[in-house]
Amino acid sequence: MTLGWIISLVTIFLITYGYDQTAIDEAYPDSKTEFMAYYGLFRNCWAIALGFIVFASAKGYGGPIGSFLACSAFEPLAKMTYGAYLVHGITMYYFFVNISYRIAISHALVAFIAISNVWISMALGLLVIIVFEAPVAQMEKLVFGHLGLSKLPTVIKYKTE
Question: Does 86 map to a domain?
Fold first, then answer.
């Protein structure tokens, strides 16, 4: 497990700080091998490294990272971001379809549009949670309570070393 943590953290560090396209272009102006290898693999390596961290934390080998990820303060935020994920496509579609004039694109405008879409999507995500998810969760508690299934199975906690 320790070897997995080391490989995972080194992979994340190298993906974040290890590649410098400018230095490679200056040292090897004709070589694109490093460029293709990095851009071909970094997303998969990042996903595997983060997946290991989540898996290790879920199995009880997360240490301080696992306790941070298991903090109960993240539960409402997780629900809200999932709701935002569900509605952000509709939000962006509505915004971009209703533009009836030409826009001069600038960095400030793109930043404003992105930040606006995030805020609107988060607000709509919160609305989705309040209107749909919370009532359904309460109905599940009532229905499963009447069926005698009110207690969920216990989660097995593994020892952390």
Answer: yes
Each of the 161 residues of the chain gets a pLDDT tens digit; together they read 889 999 999 999 988 887 776 766 676 666 677 778 888 899 999 999 999 999 999 888 888 988 888 888 888 888 899 999 999 999 999 988 988 888 889 999 999 999 999 999 999 999 999 999 888 888 888 887 777 666 655 666 666 65
- Is residue 156 one of the residues assigned to a domain? no
Structure tokens at 71: 């903090």
| Residue-number span of the structural domain to which 65 is assigned | 2-69
Angle at 134 between CA 130 and CA 135, to 5 degrees: 105
Q: How many residues are recorded in the chain? A: 161
| CB distance 12 to 50 below 8 Å | yes
Same domain, 118 and 139: yes
Long-range contacts formed by 63-71: CB under 8 A, 24+ apart: 63/160, 66/160
From 156, 160, 150, select the one nearest 64 (Cα to Cα): 160
